[in-house]
Amino acid sequence: MNDLYSRKHQILIIDDEIILANNMKNQLQRFGYEVLVGPTSGKDAIPFTINLKPDLVIMDIFLNGEPDGIEVSKKINTVLDIPIIYSTAFADEDTINRASISAPYGYLIKPIDLNELHSSIEIALYKHKMEKILKESEQRYRLISELTSDFAYAYRIDPDGNCIREWVTDAFQRITGFLPDQIDPCIGWLSLVHPDDTSIVTQRQIRLTEGYSDVSEYRILHKDGQYRWLRDYSRPMKDSPNQSVTHIIGAAQDITLSKYMESQLQISQKRLIQNSRLAAIGELASGFAHHINNPLTSILAEAQLMLHSLPVDHPCRESADAIQKASWRVFNDIQKLIELSKPITITLEKTSINNTLETATSLITDHLSIKQVDVKQIFSYANPCILANEYQLWDLWINLLLLTLDANPKHIEIKTSISPDNLAVVDIWDDGKYISPAEIEALLDADFITLPGERGIGIEMRIYQEIIRQYGGEISIVSDEKDGTTQSITFPLIAEVQNQQAEIRTFD
User: Fold this and answer.
1) Alpha-carbon distances of 56 from 73, 172, 480, rounded to whole Å
2) What pLDDT score does 502 carry?
């Protein structure tokens, strides 16, 4: 057996988060390592590590007190020749640049993936072993072993500044999809870089040719058409007489998965903030509901009394009727906001979009007739179904249609379909008042209040938007002065359904 694996390697974890360190210890012990957790402060970590003499150290950059993990590593390496892998929850450029100067054997971003941790340790141990072997050979081969990677490479810089590939490991094809000979080492590589990252790679090349080491993260286009994230470590080599750069030795690591996890974490954090704000609004509304409902009751009573006592043709009847409707709207909105802030406990089941729309439209027949609005329904034969509560969908459609009536349209068209990516789509079109892009943005703002004759108030649309979101859907609004306004609502289907030709039915 290779002597690299012929004995248990002793791993020392230096981290100020004890729970995380012990969890990492338990995971690494399953791979056969002997693992110890050291002190949490930089001051105590130095003598502890020197006395222990472990095979490898996983060092948190930010420790309790001074010095930090980078300075601790520097002091340890003046006494011991051991590989050190950095770990940190911060991936800012300044931290990476400081860490790269101390030439770590790896750089792990928290939360740390177990497979990435294991592979980084194995690569670091292997590199360290090879480093000892190569210390007696040329400098360029010794530098290769200092880099952690998915693929490694070496380039020679000729006197004219041209870049000539000397070698690259086989993993290059796995990471890029191309054979090394298919990509020019300089111009061809730059052509694969994402347009937004071109400046990063250009500046990187300048730094390397000026004799500075570099660690950069950027995206490259894989042969399959997808972009992948790389963390690219490179070091220049200089000739002794002129101190000019003659070689660039480097290695690149595929960090696409890590970047994806970071983005998902950011999305989850945004959703958490949004849900917390909605819950806070609901609690606030619940607390003030009693105080608001008391004056509302008086206002409603006075308005109803006026309507009962005033003659039919009295000019104040219109104002009294408006007061009554507005009061009921405020009361209903408060109740909906309170309900919306609570977790959904209603029963969810397979629900037909077509059926709920048809029922909702029939329930507002009087409103449509009074306003003399023509409604056309174009329902998909495929009958898209989603996981939802039928009564809540009725309420959603009714209120969206009533808000649409506020824009005084003459025609409304309700259409259902299934998108190519298997989403149930509901389009509600009308030829009412035009909405500008700024007004559309404001309409979804809970603080926005419209004038009479417009499409409801912002808090109403925000409530309905949140109901749609709870079912995994989205709502968008597009308005054109000539072509009218379309509210598009999408939901994930309960099962995959093929698109079929729509059946046109006209509402009487």
Assistant:
1) 11, 27, 65
2) 35
Both tokens of 418, joined, read 């299934």
What the block records as the tokens of 44 is 């105590």
Give CATH superfamily name and number for 10-136.
Response regulator (3.40.50.2300)
Closest CA to 152 of 130, 133, 135, 137: 130
Q: How far apart are CA 122 and CA 149, in angstroms?
A: 11
Extents of the domains making up the chain: 10-136, 151-254, 344-508
CATH class of 344-508: alpha beta
Classify domain 151-254 by CATH architecture.
Answer: 2-Layer Sandwich (3.30)
Using CA atoms, how far residue 82 sits from 56, 85, 126, in Å, is 6, 10, 12
| Residue 423 region by backbone torsions, left for phi larger than 0, else alpha for psi between -120 and 50, else beta | beta
pTM across the whole model: 0.35
Do the Cβ atoms of 37 and 18 come closer than 8 Å?
yes
Listed as ranges, residues in the chain with pLDDT below 70 are 1-7, 91, 133-150, 240-242, 264-291, 293-294, 333-346, 444-460, 462, 495-508
